[in-house]
Amino acid sequence: MDKHRLRKYSFTAPPKRQEGVIVVIVALGAVALLGAAGLAFDVGHIILSKTRLQNSVDAAALSGAKEIIVSSGDITLATAAARNTFFRNAEASGNHDMLEYYNGGGAVDVEFSATLYPFAPGTTPPEFVRVRVATMPLDTWIVSAIGITEKSVAATAVAGPSPPLGPESDACNLAPMMVCGDPASPEGTHFGYALHDVQVLKTSSTHGNFEVGPGNFQLIRLDDGQGGADVRDAMAGTYGGCLSASEDIETEPGNTIGPVAQGFNTRFGQYSGAMNSLPDPEGLYPPDVITTENTVDIQFDAEGHVTTQVGELDFNHTMYTAASAGGPYDYAPAPAGLGHFERRVLAVPVGDCTETTSGHGFVPLLGYACFFMLQKVSQQGNDAHIYGQFIENCRAYGTPGPQPGGGGGATGVGPIVIQLYEDPDSTDS
Q: What average pLDDT does the segment 14-24 reach?
């Protein structure tokens, strides 16, 4: 057999029975391509619709928060302003799904809270506004051909007043304590502290770690206040001034056990000594809504540093946050009750203790840190520690009020702006 006959036989057309298989494969491929194209098209529609819905609830929340300020807290007017803004956005070109949803009676929930963390609907005065669309159905197009008949998007937005505006280097409503930080710590690494670790914010002679210098127990002077009475009042939350980054931290020497405990423990609903003799101690220095304490003994090493880990505590910031979000409360939130949110969250200055001071003196300021107060101050002999759990941020700073530290608002000090915040209860913001 010659080569030409072999070559000709090798390229003979496929048998008829193979043609049917090819038709099936092509048909299946066409369906797969159609499905992929449909998914790409509809996913793009979902992303675009989510963006437009988020923009609309953002604008609605900002409008509601602005109206709260203008109307001095009228939630009816603020609700109307939020929904009207949402409707105007729904009328814009390309927002057919949103307009259809709204005109069809779809829910646009508007809620108000006195605090941001936690966002507690119905608490007063109403400073923060949440606008939420839980489920907005969208039209299905090509993907309906492959059996997908439903798709939807959701969005939520929270808006409210900013902290009073001022120099970015200022911090206000501080507690009269300090911690020592690492001046060589890279920016954004929390001065050498690890998040959620237990720290001593005010030491004692029992387990003293005198990093600040001899005779100092981590107490500081705020606004030139000195002596036990000023320490007690500042521990309770009277200090409303600010500390600039251009200033140094002024130390307050001495252990000052009684005044420290009397002022600090008001945050847990305990009023003793001079605090108990005030005409309205709960009104001036209200307790937190949650006063449950850690009862585990906190341990120290030979150098006076805490060795106890957060996981070893029987109450910590995570537990506190969960309890604050929905109760049950130890003290019902104001105005119905005495309790105020986040009285146990404090901001304190962080100092460069490589430059120590003996007795009264000054320590360079590195910045500020936020701590959750774990338990009351014990007055057993010289043991008067204050323990805190280092947390990432705080907006309250621990002064008395429906939102301690004030978010600004109608009762805040200084100019403010209305701004958006992440919804603490949702990933859709």
A: 56
